[in-house]
Structure formats: C-alpha cells, structure tokens
C-alpha cells in the first residue's frame, strides 16, 4: 500500500479538514502509518486519493484515467 514511488512532477495542493478529522488522521498515522508502509501523512493521503480515483474511474469512466486539460490545475 504505502511506499509509493516518488512523484517526478508533483503539484502542491492545500486541503481543509475539520480539526477532529485532522487529529484522527495524525493519530492513525502515528499508530499504524509505519506498519502500513507510509513514510508520511502525505504518503497516506496520496495513496487514499489514488484508490478513490481508481474507484471513480471504474464507476464513471469505464476504468480509464480521466482526461485532463492542457493547462493542468
């Protein structure tokens, strides 16, 4: 699960979480992150996002990656 390959072309995004969700995320990472192979909370969030994107692709885009605009974000 964890140990995702380094991202060659990465973009910094900012997300807003409720305080309780952020605290629970930190606790989950502190307790299980290392055992699951996550080196950072960022690694955990990237993998969770990757899994959700795959789920959405399967459900709504015939399993294909989403088309992106040339301008990016």
- Principal-axis shape: globular
Tell me the span between the first and last alpha carbons.
26 Å
Query: Structural class of the helix and strand makeup?
Result: mainly alpha
Compute the average pLDDT. Answer: 91
Q: Tally of extended strands?
A: 0
What is the string of helix and strand elements? HH
**What ranges have pLDDT less than 50 throughout 5 or more consecutive residues?**
none
Strand percentage lies at under 5%
Largest sheet: none
- The percent range for helix content is 40-55%
Number of helices: 2
Radius of gyration: 14 Å
Account of the protein in words:
With 73 residues, this protein is mainly α. The chain has a domain at 19-60. The chain is built from two helices and no strands. The chain has helices at 19-33, 41-60. The longest helix is centred in the C-terminal third of the chain and has 20 residues, at 41-60. It is globular and about 35 Å long. The two termini are 26 Å apart. The model has no long low-confidence stretch (mean pLDDT 91).
How would the blueprint of this fold be written?
Blueprint: H1 19-33, H2 41-60
Summarize the structure.
This protein has 73 residues and is mainly α. 48% of the residues lie in helices and 0% in strands. The longest helix has 20 residues, at 41-60.
């Amino acid at each position: 699960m964890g140990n995702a390959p380094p991202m060659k072309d990465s973009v910094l995004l900012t997300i807003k979480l409720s305080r309780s969700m952020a605290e629970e995320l930190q606790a989950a990472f502190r307790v299980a992150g290392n055992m699951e192979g996550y080196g950072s909370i960022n690694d955990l969030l990237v993998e969770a996002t990757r899994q959700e994107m795959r789920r959405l692709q399967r459900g709504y885009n015939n399993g294909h990656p989403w088309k992106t605009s040339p301008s990016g974000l």
